[in-house]
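Standup notes
- HV: blocked on the assembly model, inputs below
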Amino acid sequence: MSSLEKRLAAEKRFKFYGMFAMTLSLFFVLILMYKIFSTGSGAFVRTTINADVYFDPNFIEVSSNSSKKEIMKASYVDLADQVINQNHPGLDEENFIKVREMYTRKFDYQLRDYIANNPNVIGKTVNLDISASSDLDQIVKGNYPRNVPEAQRKINDYQLSILDSLDSKGKMSKTFNFWFFTNGDSRDPETAGILGALMGSFYALLICFSFAFPIGLLASVYLEEFVKPGKITDIIEVNINNLAAVPSIVYGLLGLGMLIGVFGMPYQVPLVGGLVLGFMTLPTIIIASRASLRGVPPSIREGALAVGATKMQTVFHHVIPLSLPGTLTGTIIGMAQALGETAPLLLIGMVAFVMEIPGGAFDPATGLPSQIYLWSESAERGFLEKTSAGIMLLLSFLIIMNTVAVLVRRKLEVKW
Amino acid sequence: MLYLSLVLVFILSYSFYFYGKKRALSLKFKKNENLSSLPDYYGYYVVLLVFFPAIIIWFFLLLFKSNFQEMFVMSPVLFPDVATWSSGKFGLIMNKISNLSMIVNLSEIDLTVGDKSILKMASESEIIAAKNLANFDKIYGWSNLTLFIILPVLLGFLATKSISGKLNAQPIVEKIISYVIKGSSYIAIFITFGIFFSLVFEAINFFRYVNFMDFFFNTAWNPNRAFVIDASDGFDQEALKEAFGFIPLLTGTLLIASVAMLVAVPLGLLTAIYLAEYASSKVRDIAKPIIEILAGIPTVVYGFFAALSLAPFIKDVGEGVGLPVSAESALAAGLAMGVMIIPFVSSLSDDVIKAVPQSLREGSYAIGATKSETIKKVILPAALAGIMGSFLLAISRAIGETMIVVMAASLRANLTFNPLEPATTITTQIVTSLIGDVEFDNPKTLVAFALGLTLFVMTLILNIAAITIVKKYREKYE
Amino acid sequence: MVDQNSNYALQTSEVYVHYGKKMAINNVALNFPKNEVTSLIGPSGCGKSTFLRCLNRMNDVIDICNVKGKFLLNGNVDIYSPDIQVETLREKVGMVFQKPNPFPKTIYENVAYGPKIHGIASSQNELDEIVKDSLHRAGLYEEVKDRMDDIATGLSGGQQQRLCIARAIAIRPEIILMDEPCSALDPIATAKIEDLINELKENYTIIIVTHSMSQASRVSSKTAFFHLGNLVEYGETGKIFTKPDKEQTNDYITGRFG
């Protein structure tokens, strides 16, 4: 029976291949998650250097009576230098620069913000944790190797010695990097935050929803309830199915050519980004909504008509509310996909360095995925963990949105 | 300001609902008129007559805001010969005025420092225009606000006045709503046409600079060769010919897509077979959603992973074996893309395999065939059409993918079939040609639309083929 | 009762079948004489199809189905023994289903499927012969000899079912199980199949599940009456249909229920 044995062996092998393929696919998901998480978690902590800060009035242009506006406009570069002198006395000019580089470049802004919140501190000494520079931060986190020749390091030997001495005095510590959530983009990785991109995506999604949901819902109502099935609806259906599969970059071109080119809308604003995402999400919503409307049994419609309701009343009072959970599920899933789309944002300009947090859909902004792209293109090592952290944030939103969609379907859906 | 106007429109429309309804009710109870419709409908009647005209005008003002801006600023009063300007000159002057407008009203600028030179270089008309521009937003905003207070209120009162017992509001309301939903569905179709036309229009503009045949059959892609400083100068025809050859983009796209399919097809299909035929329902319930996650991960994440981990890894492995591998190899991008596409193949194939009737399986088992024999000789041939459809959709997705290739593949064109070499794709070049200055009369920008049109047509054909095949397959079994 | 006598193609005893917790077959013992047609009758849901599917281990495909009992093939082989490969068993015990299920392949390929898989034919010629012979025995050859390369699903219902019989025969089984083979066919096709069964019994043992009592009385020599998972009565077909021992049997055949 050797042919039988061969066949059984072939069966075993085939089953094994299948299981191997499935396991490999699962494995990819795990690797991806692991890589992202392990590189990104570093972004949520920030290395700080503890220092005694004497707010020397001789180096401060404003007084404790100055208005907030004046305080925010003044320069504190000299004060920052003075603080460093005080904490590291007796440095010659070359070493002073090296030590200064160990502190964040935005040291003067940190001081400014502190004074703005506590104007009475002028003339007093306070013990503060100052943010370290990105390169120092990376060394402390172990992302830069220490035991390579000095020429290959971003931190030179002298700085390392200062670092070790500070460390032995207990002045080095780590703090939770809430700046990641409260700051906009920055040229310095240690102060870069995601808030600007978050708001940009938020406004864009708001516009996307405002455009795509009502139009998608109404269009599907028309196609499902008011038009007789026939050649025309077939063509429209093919049309919409195709739109759902068009590459997202083509929608970006549409936005560029039509919205920006013909209608002259501004570059880089969430308004245009949101409209483009809306164009993209519209077919998804229509498809989901039509399926949901189809799911409402004819008996409901017949029941309403039988008591004398008009078609319009039947549809709006009975059919639409019953189909809403399914439509909403599809909409939320569609918006989750829109949140992760980068290509259209690139083409309409929502991808340049923007420092300010956008206040509305008309302000220039980046979006979450395009900010991730920008950071990933940066040469500075400190942006690597920011990129991964941004990805973690993006994935979290996607998980939340998809979970909400599933919950909406489970809790609200009416089973026939 | 425009925001505020929108909010106003909503609030005012909403309040007029009550006003209209109240009027209808007062007609009924105080004047004893018989109403032809339910009072609600008179409310809706007023709302619709207020809302839709207002919202349409609002959209109009939003879309054409910058056109109004240009008309206001570049008026013939200030620039008598503005009608004769070329679009290039118009753009330049507009830019200049735009820059001026940012500083022209700032009293704090120390005019002894650099900025004064800009002011010096501007004519008096331009400075006035700049001041106008700076004020434009304010003027536009306030006038909109007033408009959107007066307009809705006016409409509202007129509509309410027209309410009488004889006025049958319900059919009017329903008619309006039927127009609205009809219009909504036309918007969806309009988008398709919008895509098509905006691509075609700009592509045609491109083909004015570069010959159709030259574009599609040339093998050299060097857009920088056609770099021109001033748009109003002529273009070097010969240089253009050498600059925009489509073929290396096509081969690059196909090369990377092939690598992706080589990963996705075996893994996706075998996974689908295993999940559909062998796995217990517990395993299936856990594994299937996790694999679907691969499809939900944004492509920028794959691109990051490919550029950061995959490409260096492949390079190291390659060099360890003695093969020359580029840091931007098509292999890296293709592998990442392949992983992304796995769920496209596995999900659809899984559905298709499950749709094969159980009676066929039983017929095969009854003859004494093993499971793998049944799958290979009965089920897969029966499901073939559907599986082919899933492949086509996967290829279409691979061709249209942007971020993975932008981040992991090369930006330089390279005509090769060697996956260890760098290559660029259609989508990458669309992105790179639009980064930087976007001028709609420069072939460097316009080529993006020609490429986009080509991409659109390619994916359209694949998608239609896929959907048709899958549809025919479903009809066979249902 | 288990008899070492190999006059029986198949002997079963102490058969219990459960779907999860629900019992479908309750302690059935039944023997099937060689080269005879035995029919299993009973109302819907009585378990006759379930029992039939035990005989070629078709119930293995269903996860929640649990089969216990002795099933001896030719008096000496327990088909549920772990030494037995189910693929070999099904070479000996073939099955024809209620709804004809030809593969979406050509007529030729449908019949050739089994022999190819089991490696029965050693040359293309031999395979052709087997296919031709099987189609003859199924009474289909004349009708399809000129269109062997046509797709099988283009045949009529009755032809498809005979094709399925040819397919089952092609691997030279000893026993053919038929699960209501005519219920999806029209009367003329049914008659053809019943004639076929009469011819086939010369060379094969046939066990047929049928809803139609008239069919049972036409084709079978032995009949087993099932009810709610129990074997109520077994005996000569003639006796069962004229003078059954059990009252339940009598009620069924006179149409009082089922």
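- HV (later): unblocked. The mean pLDDT of chain A is 87. Chain A touches chain B through 88 residues (CB under 8 Å).
- Next: hand off to the docking folks.
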